[in-house]
Amino acid sequence: MSGELAAILTAACFAYNAILFNIAGRRVTSPVVNRMRLLGALVVLASLHWILRGTPFPLDAGWERFNWLAVSAIIGFVLGDAALFEALVRIGARYTVLLTTLIPIFSSLIAWLLLGERILLTEWGFILLTMAGIAWVITERRTTGIVSRRHLFTGLGLGIFAALAQATGLVFSKLGLSDEYSVFSATLVRIAVATLILWLPIMLRRRVGEDFRRLKDRVARNALLKGTFVGPVAGVMLSLYAVQQVRVGIASTLMSLIPIFLLPLGWFMLKERVSWRALLGTILAVSGAAGLLLG
Fold first, then answer.
1. What are the start-end ranges of the H helices in 29-79?
2. Entry pTM
């Protein structure tokens, strides 16, 4: 049960994180937010690891474990997030988030192939019910913009690739977390690898100062700081604990509840109206999640 609860808390963290990073991204651009969130998380995690474990980096990981975690970071954090952000630009948030509901299906299939994890027929029913509720919420509002056919196909392809990459990253993370390895240390490894890859081109082009100068914006800086603790630190650790404790398909389904948590957060923080359709979709999604928790 602790793994399932961690997955639900992951969704809550990432929902709050999405609002905060949206606020920051509008003021300093999303690429800067993406790089800064990882750098901030790396500083926090390395400092805590040094204080609690006596070393700023988990040297006890071993090469095989390090490789699994590093590959999961490259596929999930770097490639998956890059495709996700590009899909957002090409086809908008509604279709992009809708495609992320494919993550539980992809992760279940990959975990079955690589880990031998099987999902029961009743669990598939609860997974599909949860995904249907999420899709019902996401597709409520029609987009007013017109997407060209070229952008539609490339955007759909990028969105599907992002879902596949993030699902694969979860499975590889579980391989790196074998033998009850520390979730704290594993999170630090993944964040460190992703941070290095994203910041290396910026350092080579000597543009580091430009990113830091953008943080003079107080509103963006405060939102970024809060989002760093909630998302890349707490959220990622919770997600790794979830996939370590339960089957990947179940964990990824519960972590997909982000749009459901966005409803109350959007109402409370942004004063957005919640419709009856959104409430119905929430009831469906929560019912499916409850079935996975109690099944």
1. 30-53, 63-73
2. 0.89
